Every structure is written in structure tokens, then in C-alpha cells.
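README: folding subset

This subset contains proteins for which both the sequence and a predicted C-alpha cell string are available. Records are stored as plain text. Below is the entry for Peptidoglycan-binding protein (461 residues), shown exactly as it appears on disk.
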Amino acid sequence: MIKKMGKKILLVLLSLLLAALPGQGEETQTVQSRLTELGFLSPNNEDVAVAIENFQVANGLELTGGMDQATSDILFGEAAVSQKSFLQALAERYSSQKLSMNSMGEDVEKLQKALGELGYEIGVSDGVYGEATALAVQRFQTANGLYPTGEADAGVLYRLYEGEPVGWEEFLSRQFAKKGDSGQNVRTLQRRLRAIGYFDGECTASFGERTLRAVELFQRDNQLETTGEADQATLTLLFSASPEATKAENVLRLGDTGQQIRVVQTALTELGFYTGTINGNFDERTVTAVILFQIADGLEPDGTVDEALLQEMQAEDAPQIGESVEALENSLAGIGKNDLETVALAAEEMLGKAFAQQGDELFPGFAFVQYVYAVSGMAIYSPGQIMETESLLLSSSAQVRAGEIVAVERAEQSGTRMYFGVGLGEGKIAYVSADTGYVVSQDMAQMDFTGIYAWDFSNGS
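--- output ---
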């Protein structure tokens, strides 16, 4: 049933200003440290998402690539299988000697034939592990969610011979994308474009103007027909080992650090868009503040800062957040189901990543909600904006839809408390774990709560 819950919820939250969050002991292990301990993260493999996927393969879990509850339970449990144990088990069926450049023999020839049958260009299956074989293995790893080293270790052999390997053409066909598309294929495209310097924005899985320009620039640099579409010719070269790379100069983005970031944070603080610590780290909260400013100033909200944008922030007539409410709220006008799905995809992109919670004590989880909406091009500028909007008191967790803002009401020793997250659909929610500080997902049917509230800013279309 629909209720005007804003005032009630706000009063409950204000009364709990001093309530304690669930404990965050100094001894608590982080996802990265646990993956490192188990051997899935190392200097040769620093990609957390790939490490999570490899952990899931080793432990017989569903290959989601994210820190869902099942993965979290096994990861921090006593029964977690380490990479070493997994590879030792594989060694019983495969040679413990990995195949790499200059390897020779029947094992290499068998590998070459298997890759060739899946469409990975190998040339002659001559039993010699040369550059063509290394490139084919690298492509196989990319298409099958493995770290692309170009070496055929036991994990590659297991996926190739005993798993359900994805062929090269099948992989490419899944990646076809054009302006207006959205989904995992678009996110994979954006990740690859960003890795070689063509894409500066967030990987939101939405093919907009910025992605279009990145594809066109890549095509021009590589003497391809400039269509702006990720077609087969473009994708084949994009995921090869030798596309022409570029790098935007003097652009600040997520992950950057330094004094110039402090300058940006200071300017945004003075304008009211940034409320975090001025620490010189271009983190998610800084991205959110940048996007809110860009929306308020009528600019494309890509979350990056170049010299021109910094000058806009420091100008005497730069918009203050207090005078930008109408522009910010207009970013939510007319959003539909597809927009909410983009929000849900942005939330899924954050699974398994750390998210700072400082300053989020009164409205735990709000900053995360604000961030995933911001990178999807929509401004949530304050908790009050949510509270003043009509909410839906749900009778079942199954009613939670993808992209909705969700508040879970829990009874704790200190009293009733509400935690904010983003619906992923099918009764699941993405939120920041108070115990670990990492973004996780969970089936709400398995959560302990006394009430669920949801806010749907779409027009239902």
C-alpha cells in the first residue's frame, strides 16, 4: 500500500543520530586481503573482479564475478579452497607444467587444436607455442573471464577441456553494440575502451554519446570505417593484442590522487556539492560531487575533470547546490524502466569493491545509492529528496525491483535502524556491508528486517 512515509522515516532516523553502526573491528578481513591470502590476488593479478571469478570457479560457485552472499560466506569460511589447492587438484588431471612461449610437444598441439575448434585463430597446429598461440590463449582468457596472461595454466586447461568454454565468435557476437543499447556487453566494451585510453567515463553499461565518441575515435585511429557501432571488425581489433591506444591528457578521474584533486574537492565543497574529507583521493564520493555539479551547470555528466571544468567550478558565477535544486531534480524527470535497469547495472558493477562510509552514519548506505544514481546520469542530492518523495511499504521482498532505492528497517539493540541500498531485481539488493565496508548483494528473503520501503522515481514506462 502507498503511504506518505517521508516524515515518519525522517523522524525515526533523526532520533537515532547517535545510534551505533554494526561493529567494524580492526581485525576484520577485507575481501582483497582474503583473496590475497588464498592466492587469487597477487602482483601478477591485481584485478579484483577476475580474482573473485577465479575463486568462484575453484570453489564450485555460480560464476557471477561479484561478491554475492554465497561467495562472501565461502570466502570468509573455513572451507574456502585456495588457488594452490585448486591447482594441485587440477594437476592430477593435467600437467603441472604450464604451457607458455617456446613450449613444445603433444600438449601444445592438443591445445592449439582445441582453441582452433572454438574459433581462436591459431595458424598451424604444429606443437610449437609461439606468438599466435599466446594471442589465441589471451583471447580465450578474455572471452572466458580469466586473467589474460597468454599462458595456458591449469585454469585455462580446465576451462578448455572440462568446462563450457565460450568460442571467439560467440564472444564477439555477444559484444555487438550501438548507441542506445545497454547491458553487460556495453559494459565490457567500455572497460576495454577505458583500458587502452579511449573512454574516460564510468562503465555504466549504457551506450551514450561518450561511448559513441570513444568508438569513433578508436575506429579512426585504427583505419576502420567510422560507424560509431561496435561491429565485428571493430571488436575483433579492439580485443586483439595490438590496437592503437590513446590517452586523454590532463583529465582527472576516479582513482587519481594528488594535490590537484584537493583543489577540485575544495572548489566543490565551497559550492556545496562535496561534503566528504578533502584528502586528495578521487574516490566515488568525489565522482558523485563532480557529476552533481555537471548536471547543475548543464554539462555532460561524465564524472571527470579537465582544466575547463575546474575553471567552471572556480568561476564567480559557478552554480551553488542550493540554487541548483530544479536542475538536479529535472535529471530524474521522465526516467523509465530502462533507466532504472542502468542504475541496477551500475550497482552490480560495484559488487566486491570497497566504498567509504565516513559521514554516512545517520543515513547508512545513502552515499552508495547517490553514487550509482549519479554515474547513471541522475541526481540524488540529499537524503531529504528521498524522504519527501512518496514511498511504497512492501509486504514482500519479492516486490523489490531493479533500480529502486530500498530502505531496510532493522531492529537492533540500540533501536530501529534503516539501511539504504539499490534493488537488483528478483528480490535482491546491493548495499555496503557495515562489517567489511564492501559492496555486497543479498537475497532479501534471507535478511532479518522489520520493514522494507522502496522509492521508484520512474514514470513506469
